């Protein structure tokens, strides 16, 4: 089994753990205003392609037309893996862009190596700061993950949650009622197996679902403040076994080389599928018209609700001059505005970043026309994010290896997660 999407994307960052120390003061930013009509150029690297890239280009155009001081030049760097590799290469050659898209979990490593400019001088001070009302309007889970060591180093951008996709027509044919808990889904396993259908499908790795169930059982895999590792606690093992047992019994399946579980779901091999809410856009394009599919928030487990928030933030590198940094913040603030976060959500399937955006009548009307996107929005109040720390990338790769071992080698969770704990504790001890 290969690394998951972000596991592969961030492999290059593991070099940071080897003691790479860069000042990242160099830049590939152009300081020549003449080519842009006197405007300051803000270079922006991202991994948005297809309909996502089209939506982002529209927002960049909106920003460039909204003022006459700055011009943002967005460049798609391929997929997320390529984007992260190019950021690392640019850091080494001191040719970083002004801003880039990345996961919040890279921030501790970037900060340790002096790549990033903190956003506090722009975000919390000055005439262009975010007001208290604006800060309160952004969903707390998004803002909390943007803060590291008491400072803001990123802003939320392309955010998604895990949701449950279900085949309504097949459910009706099988006489299955909509489950409200993971326990109910597992209970469907035996009867569905007799009919040649698996109850639920996962992506190539079930790491996010595992972490979500662990949270629902009362455990963060790594505690936010103490960085205590809980990957093999009693509660966490119970959560891991819940999924692993279904896989061994043939009640659930992972995607394998298909990578995403939507393919098995679309062909009726699984009744339910857990995937990213951002996948709704792709499902709209690829699902057979005969497929009567819908979405719902993830079911409860242990009587609790939780869904992992995923996606990307935007960071500002030290590479820019003062004018470029001011322009970068102006663009970030623009992306966080109610109008633009609604436009982004409607164009991509990512969730709005503000409560007022979700409550906006025009967005509510859009949800009525696009009901498959409602589950993600309705999940925001119980979303959580993984604990970020220096060395997180190495830890996550080890987590993916542990899940891979449970899937491909049928390693007992007790063994796989005990090994993971040893590795995680060493990573944290060596880096934090």
UniProtKB/TrEMBL annotation:
<dbReference type="InterPro" id="IPR006059">
    <property type="entry name" value="SBP"/>
</dbReference>
<dbReference type="Pfam" id="PF13416">
    <property type="entry name" value="SBP_bac_8"/>
</dbReference>
<keyword id="KW-0813">Transport</keyword>
<keyword id="KW-0732">Signal</keyword>
<protein>
    <submittedName>
        <fullName>ABC transporter substrate-binding protein</fullName>
    </submittedName>
</protein>
<dbReference type="InterPro" id="IPR050490">
    <property type="entry name" value="Bact_solute-bd_prot1"/>
</dbReference>
<comment type="similarity">
    <text>Belongs to the bacterial solute-binding protein 1 family.</text>
</comment>
<feature type="signal peptide">
    <location>
        <begin position="1"/>
        <end position="26"/>
    </location>
</feature>
């Amino acid at each position: 089994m290969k690394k998951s999407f972000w596991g592969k994307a961030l492999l290059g960052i593991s070099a940071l753990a080897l003691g790479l120390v860069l000042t990242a003061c160099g830049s590939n930013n152009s300081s020549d205003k003449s080519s842009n009509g006197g405007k300051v150029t803000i270079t922006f690297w991202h991994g948005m392609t297809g309909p996502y890239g089209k939506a982002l280009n529209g927002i960049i155009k909106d920003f460039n037309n909204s003022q006459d001081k700055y011009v943002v030049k967005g460049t798609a760097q391929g997929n997320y893996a390529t984007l992260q590799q190019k950021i690392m290469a640019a850091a080494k050659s001191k040719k970083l862009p002004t801003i880039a898209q990345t996961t919040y979990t890279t921030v501790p490593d970037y900060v340790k190596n002096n790549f990033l400019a903190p956003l506090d001088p722009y975000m919390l001070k000055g005439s262009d700061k975010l007001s208290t009302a604006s800060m309160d309007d952004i969903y707390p889970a998004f803002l909390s993950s943007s803060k590291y060591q008491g400072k803001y180093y990123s802003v939320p951008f392309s955010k998604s949650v895990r949701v449950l996709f279900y085949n309504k027509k097949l459910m009706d044919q099988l006489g299955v009622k909509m489950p409200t808990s993971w326990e109910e889904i597992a209970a469907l396993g035996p009867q569905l197996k007799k009919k040649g259908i698996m109850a639920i499908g996962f992506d190539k790795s079930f790491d996010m679902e595992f972490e979500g169930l662990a949270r629902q059982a009362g455990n963060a895999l790594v505690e936010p403040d103490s960085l205590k590792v809980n990957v093999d606690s009693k509660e966490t093992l119970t959560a891991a076994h819940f999924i692993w047992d279904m896989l061994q019994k043939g009640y659930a399946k992972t995607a394998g080389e298909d990578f995403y579980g939507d393919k098995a779901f679309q062909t009726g091999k699984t009744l339910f599928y857990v995937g990213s809410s951002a996948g709704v856009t792709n499902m709209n394009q690829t699902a057979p018209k005969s497929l009567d599919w819908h979405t719902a928030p993830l079911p409860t487990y242990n009587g609790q609700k939780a869904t992992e928030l995923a996606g990307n933030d935007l960071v500002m590198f030290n590479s820019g001059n003062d004018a470029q940094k001011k322009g970068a913040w102006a663009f970030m603030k623009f992306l966080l505005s109610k109008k633009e976060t609604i436009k982004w959500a409607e164009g991509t399937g990512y969730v709005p970043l503000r409560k007022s955006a979700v409550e906006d009548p025009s967005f509510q009307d859009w949800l009525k026309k696009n009901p498959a996107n409602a589950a993600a929005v309705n999940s925001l109040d119980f979303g959580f994010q993984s604990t970020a720390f220096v060395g997180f990338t190495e830890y996550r790769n080890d987590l993916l290896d542990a899940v891979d071992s449970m899937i491909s080698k049928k390693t007992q969770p007790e063994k796989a997660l005990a090994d993971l704990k040893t590795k995680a504790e060493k990573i944290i001890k060596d880096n934090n």
